Fold this protein.
Amino acid sequence: MKYGNTPTNGFASKREARRAWELQLLERAGEISDLRMQVPFEIVPACPPERAAFYLADFVYLQNGKQVVEDSKGFKTAEYRLKRKLMRHVYGISILET
């Protein structure tokens, strides 16, 4: 249990589980498509002996033909804030925080 989160239905928190359920409903209704969960993005390539660094997106989906990368956040750690900046720098992706 990290930062007071309660793991729920295989998700790291109640917030993330609730959002997954909402997104699944939106996909069934045709509002979004290609919903994927726990999608890794390499933000720093490996440089031996160091391993690559990744950002693990909670959800990735298409909405109106555009890719949306979403993270269910209750508490924004310094590590998350750095990874969010690297996602914008490396991929030009702004993370939707819910």
Observations:
- DSSP finds two helices and four strands in the chain.
- The mean pLDDT is 93.
- The two ends are 20 Å apart (CA to CA).
